């Protein structure tokens, strides 16, 4: 499925509306006479007052009427809406006000990074790009998840595996959280790379999945650099893993993902699993 490039004006409007509507007026100390409301969140005039812009300006932004706010206005709106750091970066990307890295988008692993992934054994490790395409992996990661070498390139994508692979999609004990976090990352990548047609087509394909479409519509934005994953591995059993995501300075479209055991039981289970691996 193919779709057009990101309509940032429409997305900026929708994002501002959803962030405004999620705010609790009681947290802003607004006078009680102003708090009688039929719709959730803050009113447009309240956001305008907090950001120091006109009500008409906020209305026109939320109606996608072609405005391109300055960096100063974007910052003021981010403060008024109490955006988290990743949401703030997303707003700057939508407004085209964040400096962009002119580096080339990664479609293959940088050779030094591919060697590093192999050298990290016995820790499971893999290399991704901003689309979640899997560019390189070591034997331990292939044993833990799936033998990536047996998959066609179009399926070597971490989000595709989580959504569609008949075995991998059942691995996660808290699958909705994993999918939600992955979608929040993809949304940030989508705004940061508006001309990446491969990413746009990938998201269009994913939105045919009902679960993905529902969570995508919530417009959560977050880039996770570390966290935990609980896996129900068909051979190793229950696994409690910590993951770390590192971005190399010289290849900033590539992300090194490393898994480590959180407990001795998981470490022992991984040792047994990896000892049976043969290519």
Q: CATH topology of the largest domain, anyone?
A: Beta-Lactamase
Supply the CATH architecture of the largest domain.
2-Layer Sandwich
What is the 3D shape?
Answer: elongated
Summarize the biggest pleated sheet.
5 strands, antiparallel
What is the average of the pLDDT values?
A: 89
**How many β-strand runs?**
5
Quickly count the helices. Answer: 12
Order of helices and strands: HHHHHHEEHHHHHEEEH
Adjacency order of strands in the biggest sheet: 2-1-5-4-3
Structural class: alpha+beta
State the low-pLDDT regions, or none.
Answer: none
Helix fraction? 40-55%
Number of domains: 2
What separation lies between the terminal Cα atoms? 35 Å
How big a fraction of the residues is strand? 5-15%
Radius of gyration from CA coordinates: 21 Å
**Overall CATH class of the largest domain:** Alpha Beta
Features:
single chain, 279 residues, alpha+beta, Beta-Lactamase, 12 helices, elongated
Structural summary, described in words:
There is one protein chain. By secondary structure, this protein is of the alpha+beta class. The chain folds into 2 domains: 8-94, 434 Repressor (Amino-terminal Domain) (Orthogonal Bundle); 111-275, Beta-Lactamase (2-Layer Sandwich), CATH 3.30.450.180. The protein is built from 12 helices and 5 strands. The chain has helices at residues 8-21, 44-51, 55-62, 71-80, 85-94, 111-119, 139-144, 158-164, 175-192, 197-206, 210-216, 264-275, and strands at 125-129, 134-137, 226-233, 237-246, 254-261. Strands 2-1-5-4-3 form a 5-stranded antiparallel sheet. Helix 2 (44-51) packs across helix 3 (55-62), helix 2 (44-51) crosses helix 4 and helix 4 (71-80) runs antiparallel to helix 5. The radius of gyration is 21 Å and the shape is elongated.
